[in-house]
């Protein structure tokens, strides 16, 4: 007999996981404030600052996703989930920085600005085409506005921009962990959900009938929604854990939450490994704000 999950179970899952999310934030809050305080006094472009910024946006987006799911706004939640995945992957890539000779924060800002500039020039050229004005030479403009890349060839600049492309990030990070099946499988799943959510961002016809206002879900449907509630907790706090450890070593800060949040994440994973018991537990209790 196929399992059917009622909306009430999804709603309670949202509440329970949001409480776990709040609990985890309280564990690391003082350390994050300490790191932020240090970074505010530094004028350098640092990986930790960019990673924290991206993770704060992940965090805000996650809270919004849980609210949308409770409101049965499944389509909108998928759009935001894709954005959350992109922010998470960039934070992971920047803070893990496997090449100590390169400051990824500098590259992230420089080539991110160039990518935005390229989009702007291309949009102007569309306007110029419509108004029959002269086409702007893209690469002349790039070298003019970004003199520090004049020594680079076009393909070198494009390659530097593409290193922050989501699919390239997944390939790069997952290849580093190919011998660790759990981590490798995690990035495989992230890529799967990123691809699935893209059709909602781009208004694909396949996304049109997605769940609508369904009040019950089959196993596959519920698993997809449940993962949107649970996966971000691990993505956000596992990466924050790396930022905390990175800051302790690099900035010599007095950090106290690393062991505690590591233990809590392991305990949560063990609980979620038995999803049936987890759901039975939250269905049997009244969920209050922690």
Short description:
With 290 residues, the protein is mostly helical. It has 11 helices and 2 strands.
Overall pLDDT level? 91
**Strand content of the residues, in percent?**
under 5%
DSSP strand count: 2
Largest sheet, order of strands side by side? 1-2
Overall shape: it is globular
Span from first to last CA?
A: 36 Å
Biggest sheet architecture:
2 strands, antiparallel
Q: Which regions contain 5 or more consecutive residues with pLDDT less than 50?
A: none
Structural class: mainly alpha
Q: Helical region count?
A: 11
Query: What is the helix content?
Result: over 70%
**Quaternary structure of the protein:** single chain
Rg on CA atoms, Å? 22 Å
State the domain count: 1
Order of helices and strands: EHHHHHHHHEHHH
Q: Strands, helices and their partners?
A:
Layout: E1 4-6, H1 7-40, H2 47-70, H3 74-96, H4 104-130, H5 138-145, H6 154-162, H7 166-176, H8 181-201, E2 216-218, H9 219-250, H10 258-273, H11 275-284
Provide an overview of this structure.
- The protein is an all-alpha fold.
- It has one domain.
- The chain has eleven helices and two strands.
- The protein has helices at residues 7-40, 47-70, 74-96, 104-130, 138-145, 154-162, 166-176, 181-201, 219-250, 258-273, 275-284, and strands spanning 4-6, 216-218.
- The chain has a two-stranded antiparallel ribbon with strand order 1-2.
- Helix 7 (166-176) runs antiparallel to helix 8 (181-201) and helix 9 packs antiparallel against helix 10.
- The longest helix is centred in the N-terminal third of the chain and has 34 residues, at 7-40.
- The chain is globular.
- The two termini are 36 Å apart.
- The mean pLDDT is 91.
